TrEMBL record:
Keyword annotations: RNA-binding
GO molecular-function term, one example from the UniProt record: RNA binding
Protein name, UniProt field: S4 domain-containing protein YaaA
InterPro entries for the chain: RNA-bd_S4-rel_YaaA, S4_RNA-bd, S4_RNA-bd_sf
Domain RNA-binding S4, chain residue ranges per copy: 11-67
Length: 68
């Protein structure tokens, strides 16, 4: 599991995917989230603006990311 450190209270899911280099662009992140290909805390998330906070886990493309 990869750890992603954020220095704010939260980060939006699409911004996190770009920040963590899961995707090349914000547009790509929005498309993948809308298609239901991203899991947050084990559940499919289709909200690109979902607030991700330390302690949350994001899964995409077979990789797990823990937000710290």
């Amino acid at each position: 599991m990869k750890q992603i450190k954020i220095t704010t209270e939260f980060i939006k899911l699409d911004q996190l995917m770009k920040f963590a280099d899961m995707v090349d662009s914000g547009g790509e992140a929005k498309m993948l989230i809308a298609q239901g290909l991203v899991l947050v805390n084990g559940e499919i998330c289709t909200q690109r603006g979902k607030k991700i906070r330390p302690g949350d886990e994001v899964e995409f493309d077979g990789q797990n990311y823990q937000i710290i």
